[in-house]
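Shall we go through a protein fold together, starting from nothing but its sequence? Label the sequence line and the structure token line clearly, so we can match residues to local backbone shapes. Would you write everything just below, so we can both look at the same thing?
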Amino acid sequence: MPRPSPSHRTVHIPVMLHEVLTQLAIQPGLNIVDGTLGAGGHSQHILKAMNQQGQLIGLDRDQSMIDRAAQVVSGPNVSLHQCSYAELETVLEKLSIETVDRVLLDLGLSSDQLADPQRGFGFDTSGPLDMRYDTSTGSPAKDLMLTASTEELTQIFSEYGDERDADKIAAEIVKRRKAARAIETADQLVELVHSVTGPTSQKKSPSVARVFQGLRIAVNRELDQLEQFLTEVLPQRLSPGGRAVIITFHSIEDRMVKDAFRNKEVWNNLTRKPLAPTPSEVRMNPRSRSAKIRVAERAE
């Protein structure tokens, strides 16, 4: 296998890897879906545990992530696809697979995406505010901020980002675009948020993080994708006795998964309380600190 090029080397650390592998309870011959493939951090270990038995199906909306994952996740029993996990049914139909035995979702943002200066996910860049996972479809974040009303932007920052100054930040965005000073780059948005919330010694202030999070969720319609998957796709395509392991990083996502797994006609909930990262993992990988894992088994 060729060595990964520098542009395709990953800096992402898979979150709660031990817990994920334990909860997936991998056995010979299973069909396993990694619905958020990323750079293959979880999948490369899943593939090893499968011991070339069964099939691993990896999905991601971001082609650059698939390119990275292909360096470490490959083989005759591996199938990688650029699409949302909400489109799993279409992929399974193409593969002539009716149901699968295990599904993993890691709803966190990859460190590789944050580090890409052209994507607009990270706070430390001066690149364009795009934030789309799939840059071939939809509208970038900078366009959303050009067209959304003050009320719509307030809702995005408040509901998706839990930002207490959402209304003030939204008003400043609209004020600047009316003065032909539209926000188009990541560093411009960071400066705007700081101008509203006050000076801080932290470059990555909590308000900046919450605003970026809210925009990313809105641009990619992440909650719509998750709702469709939990209510329509997963119950239909996970085989009876199969397991779903879902990692969330946002309170809304966690609540959606929790509520879905409460349906006893569909699920046997295996985690009354979500699993959390160990203190040692948080020290080694601070981005894991808000991770929660919920696990459920498809009812027979």
Observations:
- The chain has two domains: 6-112+222-298, 134-219.
- Residues 6-112+222-298 form a domain with the Rossmann fold fold (CATH 3.40.50.150).
- The longest strand covers residues 238-248.
